[in-house]
């Protein structure tokens, strides 16, 4: 245990092998492919959970903040890919409202449907849209826990002005999850829960 009263979530250097901050990612599929590349690399590097995410600027289609699951390397149970992407985007923009008060909308792209925590963080981030690859049930099928979410979570986000697009490259996204299991990815979970399951 270290004594420093701080926390950091450093993204691995290989992120820059995949992310090009100078080019646009125009379509939902372009954006999802990048996020899936990040998730797959995280699996290949045995760097943590099989999840990737990113924040994109809707005006330019440029990536603002990439994220991968850092729960294990950062010893941080909240370091899900979406949370990391949101934090990196905020850091790069120098502001906590990623949508600039609605004047500069942004989109969160997640390789798998957000868990209960990440669903909660989505409206607080200020994004205007969410794009999702694999579904909740795809993650649960290989043992990941998404937590308790309302059945109508899409309607909840839409009621807060956030558009939701599901099933973008869902098969490819689900394959990333399967790849993680096939390569013996570590199952991380909270030890206090009745039925310990890793968190997505
Ligand atoms: Zn999450």
Strand content: 5-15%
Low-confidence stretches: 192-196
Strand order in the largest sheet: 2-1-3-4-5
Number of DSSP-assigned strands: 5
Q: What would you call the shape?
A: globular
**Rg of Cα set:** 16 Å
Our count of helices gives: 7
Main pleated-sheet profile: 5 strands, mixed
Q: What is the arithmetic mean of pLDDT? A: 91
Topology:
Layout: H1 15-18, H2 28-44, E1 52-57, E2 63-68, H3 81-93, E3 106-112, H4 116-125, E4 129-134, H5 136-141, H6 153-159, E5 163-165, H7 170-182
Parallel strand pairs: 3-4, 4-5
Antiparallel strand pairs: 1-2, 1-3
Helix pairs in contact: 2-7
Bound molecules: zinc ion.
Residues 80, 82, 114-115, 117-118, 200 line the site of zinc ion.
Q: Could you characterize the architecture of this molecule?
A:
- This protein is of the alpha/beta class.
- It contains seven helices and five strands.
- The chain has a five-stranded mixed beta sheet with strand order 2-1-3-4-5, with helices on both faces.
- A hairpin with a 5-residue loop joins strand 1 and strand 2.
- Helix 2 runs parallel beside helix 7.
- The longest helix has 17 residues.
- About 2% of the residues have low confidence.
């Amino acid at each position: 245990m270290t004594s420093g009263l701080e926390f950091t979530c450093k993204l691995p250097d290989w992120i820059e092998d995949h992310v090009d901050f100078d080019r646009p990612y125009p379509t939902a599929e372009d954006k999802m492919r990048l996020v899936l590349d990040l998730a797959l690399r995280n699996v290949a590097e045995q760097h943590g959970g099989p999840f990737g995410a990113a924040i994109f600027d809707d005006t330019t289609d440029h990536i603002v903040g990439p994220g991968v699951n850092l729960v294990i390397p950062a010893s941080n149970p909240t370091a899900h890919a979406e949370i990391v992407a949101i934090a990196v985007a905020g850091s790069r923009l120098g502001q906590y409202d990623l949508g600039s008060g609605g004047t500069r909308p942004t989109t969160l792209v997640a390789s798998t449907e957000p868990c209960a925590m990440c669903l909660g963080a989505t409206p607080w981030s200020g994004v205007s849209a969410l794009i999702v690859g694999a579904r909740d049930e795809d993650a649960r099928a290989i043992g990941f826990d998404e937590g308790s979410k309302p059945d109508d979570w899409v309607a909840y986000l839409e009621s807060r002005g956030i558009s939701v697009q599901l099933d973008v490259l869902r098969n490819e996204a689900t394959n990333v999850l399967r790849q993680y299991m096939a390569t013996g990815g570590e199952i991380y979970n909270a030890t206090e829960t009745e039925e310990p399951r890793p968190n997505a």
